[in-house]
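Please, structure for the following, as tokens.
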Amino acid sequence: MGVEIKVPTVGESITEVTLSQWLKNDGDYVEMDENLAELESDKATFELPAEKAGILKIVAQEGDTLEIGAVVCIIEEGEAGDSKPSTKEETSVADAKEEKQPEGKNDGDEEKEENYAAGTPSPAAAKILKEKGIDPKEVKGTGKDGRITKEDALKAEKTAEKKSEQPKATTDTTPRESSQKPVAGAREERREKMSSLRKTIAKRLVSVKNETAMLTTFNEVDMKPIMDLRAKYKDKFKDKYGIGLGFMSFFTKAVTTALAEWPAVNARIDNNEIVYSDFADISIAVSAPKGLVVPVVRNAESLSLDEIEKAIRDLATKARDNKLTIEEMTGGTFTITNGGVFGSMMSTPIINAPQSAILGMHNIVERPVAINGEVVIRPMMYIALSYDHRIVDGRESVSFLVRVKELLEDPARLLLGI
């Protein structure tokens, strides 16, 4: 008796998923707990394991949207080696049977046989002719009563290919004006169904723009102190902790310090209440193959620089491999996004609802700046804080960003906690 494999419950707010990819083929023998397919929700991608060993019978197809509890496939009783032939093999066998003509038949068989007129192609031949755009009237049938067989269609296909390769002779040398001007370059279009993740991103971004009073304030940071510190200690840091020292850990530490001083930036609106968090779960925006995802570094305020770097590395690796769980992408209190890795010089990041603020990092560019009355060249970065004005006032948003700037330009404060 077969066992139905259904879409599991993956979260309270998730009612449907998309079957993004089959990892096994129909008719394959699968072991228990072996991954069969990848399912994609509006928050994460997860794998569907086999609940028993047996022969896989596929029910849902790639791209189908399935409700929670819907049947995805059936695993039937069977042993390894009992799997069905592939679709191509079955088609070949069917074609062979179809083209095979009996040498003799009884009168009763003659009554059952369909009456094909001369020039009528067999189903297999008709398929070939249709795909190649060949008119059946141009093909001479060699089958019974002039019927066009599969071999006739294949010969016609080869003949058509040879004709297309030969240069066409032109007997009329009179110049003629072309009725249509040639178009430079290809003008092709393709359509792809939006993934559940992309549809959710689109809905949330529009919702944030419509439902929040979002403003953005800017500042700039002299990155030379951090760059000098990294250059001096990066080798020792990697030897001791086994991971490189990047900019993101400095920004995360600076943000968590500033959030403790300006708690409204770390708050959120829940119905008619404002919820303040005494912890900092920092969401880090990561570009994944299927779209932007925002995994969360929990209790970042209590982590050291190396612990932050390791947490970000692990989450980014999972994001690239589509292995993030829903728990790893929910519950953040503040978001950091780094458009500088793509070359962005300045932007206004959109708030990651229901959070009240997001910090945008940008690329580092050497620019002339005035320091102590002198013009010097420094590696400068623009930073942007988008915030919900319903919760965060202008004084709080500007003061928060100034505090982040101070901590980054004097990284010793991050280490000393001052």
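The longest strand covers residues 357-371. The radius of gyration is 33 Å.
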